[in-house]
Here is the input.
Amino acid sequence: MAIVIDGKLISQQIQEELALEVKTIKTNGGKTPHLAAILVGNDGASETYVGAKVKACEKIGFKSTLVRLSQDTTEQELLYIIKGLNADADIDGYIVQLPLPKHINEQHIIEAVDPKKDVDGFHPQSVGRMALNLPTYLPATPYGILQLLERYKIETVGKHCVVIGRSHIVGSPMSILMARNTNPGNCTVTMCHSRTANLKEFTLKADIIIVALGKPEFLTADMVKDGVVVIDVGITRVTSDSTKSGFKLLGDVKYDEVAAKSSFITPVPGGVGPMTIASLLVNTLKASKKEVYK
Here is the structure.
């Protein structure tokens, strides 16, 4: 049976480490790290996620600012707010919560963020520096996955890693990070996606599988070999008669049957999810300390 990778525990450890460092910075008269978030509209999932970020900041001693904008905010109005955050010397890093309303071009917004404050790691400059293995802010979810692999001492050197999914948020950056000459890294990486033919042929050869498709219980036991490491990034809300809320959360992996063949596996919820906020906080501290851009 697999060792369950506890993202809640690791996220808590990271936040405790950050809290101690922030306390030392304040004691020595240094600048308190300051993270801002822009939330446009009233998307329920975004509200929950941004709220969790604000609470995490308060918990570890960061300053936080939440900029709430209405659903009908124009692209020009949002760009004006971003210009202000770029110029605000007290704000070390900020995020623009995605998705944005359909009338706003997300790429225009991402490119307007000052790369020095791009703690989400989505700006083209951040992506390019990541690909070149230069100092940068890594996207929060992929960075969180790297920290799970590192803290559980999962060997990646020379392993065959299959990434299922090619989004700019998880799949594409994961394929780059797992192939880099770093630790974790140094994998031989295969990126699979919705157009991959005979996907099972690839997954059966994989030592590490990272699934980020958004399709509940997509990866099944017959698709993996014994001893595989499985990182499940997917999270889908489905109706359920067995819970008080009337719904439950499922990952992209059919957990019970795949866990029986795995050496390590992340659960949903409680695996990759909690690491996203922890990684964002790490990036913000780096921004505050000018570790990436001197």
